[in-house]
Design a protein that fits this description.
Blueprint: E1 5-8, E2 21-24, H1 34-39, H2 41-56, H3 65-84, H4 94-116, H5 118-121, H6 123-126, H7 135-161, H8 173-197, H9 200-214, H10 227-234, H11 237-250, H12 256-280, H13 284-287
Helix pairs in contact: 2-7, 3-4, 3-7, 4-7, 4-8, 4-9, 4-11, 8-9, 8-11, 8-12, 11-12
């Protein structure tokens, strides 16, 4: 029902009766009503706040859990890949090199997982109340952004600890976060629409994302990939995010080619996902 445009008519069927509601299907190729979504911004804020409270309720560490996951992953990677195996890090201390790659990847995976399960997890709202269904994936994305901001504070502390001098390149970080958000939202929207029909998607997606981590230069730098295979790694849209995320933090040269791939893939996936989501949105309440 979220893809319909509900319009209150001014004509009354009979004197003294209430105005009727006309439910019309979406028109146009994309039919993304940003004005309607903006009108439900308070609901978006409430859903983000509700999910954060539920997630950290009755926990000892609270929001520090947003730091714990990338931090402990960094410690494990540093021990096995940095110390025992000796994977290079392009002249940057391996702990901060690993954390700078794990941080955006954790946000990417968490945002996809949250958005893909947002519809199924809110079935009690979908079949009872009307609101733009896109609000639910956006709320899940907002939760991930909050965790990213908290975990980034620890990264700032690591930069000072390892005496990494910041440059103007750091201004590129908001662009990289935006690209990551668009990419994860696009994938999450497609997965959420499919997950309503086929619950196998919710089980398959974490496995695929886990495999994708090893196809992304997180544990290792892109320079360690053989030249003949480097083009294949760059087809992975998260390669451009991770590589340029580190470039922005460490004052290195940006990889504009991989960043262009990321922007192109993110645009295509997000546009296609919005189109598919809006077209099947009206059936969510009946199926879920």
């Amino acid at each position: 029902m979220s893809s319909e445009v509900i319009k209150r008519t001014s004509e009354l069927a009979a004197p003294g009766t209430l105005p009727t509601l006309q439910i019309r299907p979406p028109s146009g190729w994309l039919s993304l009503d940003l004005k309607e979504i903006w009108g439900y911004r308070e609901l978006l804020y409430f859903l983000v706040w509700r999910d954060l409270k539920v997630r950290y309720k009755q926990t000892v560490l609270g929001a520090m859990w947003a730091i714990a996951q990338p931090l402990f992953t960094t410690l494990i990677f540093t021990l096995f890949f940095g110390k025992m195996i000796g994977v290079g890090s392009d002249g940057v201390p391996y702990p901060i090199f690993a954390y700078a790659g794990i941080l955006p990847w954790t946000y990417f995976v968490g945002a996809i997982s949250g958005t893909s399960n947002s519809l199924v997890g809110s079935a009690h709202l979908i079949d009872k109340v009307y609101f733009p269904r896109l609000i639910l994936p956006l709320a899940a994305l907002g939760n991930g952004l909050v965790d990213l901001a908290v975990a980034f504070l620890f990264l700032v502390g690591m930069l000072f600890y390892y005496q990494v001098a910041l440059t103007w390149s750091i201004l590129m970080l908001p662009v990289l976060v935006l690209l990551t958000s668009c990419l994860s939202l696009g994938i999450g929207l497609l997965a959420s629409a499919l997950n309503v029909h086929y619950r196998d998607v919710g089980r398959l997606l974490p496995f695929v994302l886990q495999l994708g981590m090893y196809a992304t230069p997180i544990i290792y730098p892109l320079s360690r990939v053989p030249e003949q295979w480097r083009w294949l790694i760059k087809l992975n849209p998260m390669t451009g995010v991770i590589a340029n995320y580190r470039a922005a933090l460490f004052g290195q040269q940006f990889d504009w080619a991989s960043l262009a791939v990321t922007a192109g893939v993110a645009s295509i996936i997000l546009t296609s996902a919005l189109f598919v989501f809006r077209r099947v949105e009206a059936k969510f309440a009946d199926i879920i």
